[in-house]
């Protein structure tokens, strides 16, 4: 079976420090999280940043500090968010691409987001994608609804994107497609050939969606951005959420990818040279 790529999304833009004591606020705290989730078995870290007071920021200098903090502590693939937070301008969201992370997200269409609207019109998507192409940043296509796959195909026709790509289905956002096994299977069937995919189930659907992906041969995203609980009423840490997926994969006899194996599976270039720390193998806790 293909090694399992576990992405961790530890921070997000919507979560507040009042909701959980496990939210990484400073770059140093994010570096700590990177070390712990790497030890637990993650290979990609999806990055949002916070100011010292816990509020969300997409400041380039803060992302730079976060990038280096993660690099100091791990060999994880660093994936920046270009989704940012509701209400940010497209320019603010895309500015962090100039730091040339290995990967960054590209949400492939507008979607209701609770009572808000997460805006991703074609001009916004084109603008972000052009910057990604300019800086050599690999997109991860964020799919919140089935029409987002059609949008990505249209971007391909326009010559801005080449398939196959790595896709992340974000299921269960109020306003997006529900998190169900049937919807997941339907989305996977609609993908262009040879795409790799992961699923991020929101809230209590994180675990069932992870289990479905494991059974289907897909990949998994977990982390506090999508779900703050380990079980009903019990707050989770990011490393616990990763470790649980590793245990489930182990039961299935599915190996867990190291970051370098994930790079190979995703067709990314070799790990950036500045990574020099000696890195532990994932533990099957
Ligand atoms: N914060 C959401 C509005 C991404 O990171 O690319 C968007 C989001 C997606 O989190
Ligand atoms: Zn995000």
Question: What is the first-to-last residue Cα distance?
Answer: 20 Å
Give the number of helices.
9
Overall residue-averaged pLDDT value: 95
Order of helices and strands: EHEEEHEHEEEHEHEHEHEEEHH
Structural shape: globular
Biggest sheet, spatial arrangement of strands: 1-2-5-6-9-10-11-12
Helix amount, in percent? 25-40%
- Percent strand: 15-25%
Stretches with pLDDT under 50, minimum 5 residues: 275-285
Would you kindly provide a written description of the structure presented here, covering whatever features stand out?
It is globular, with a radius of gyration of 17 Å. Strand 3 (49-50) and strand 4 form a beta hairpin. The model is unreliable at 275-285 (pLDDT under 50). The protein is an alpha/beta fold. The strands form 4 sheets. It has an 8-stranded parallel barrel with strand order 1-2-5-6-9-10-11-12, surrounded by 7 helices. It is built from 9 helices and 14 strands. The longest helix has 15 residues, at 238-252. The two termini are 20 Å apart. 36% of the residues lie in helices and 19% in strands. Bound molecules: (5S)-5-amino-3-OXO-hexanoic acid and zinc ion (ZN).
Question: Can I get a quick summary?
Answer:
The chain has 285 residues and is α/β, with parallel strands linked by helices.
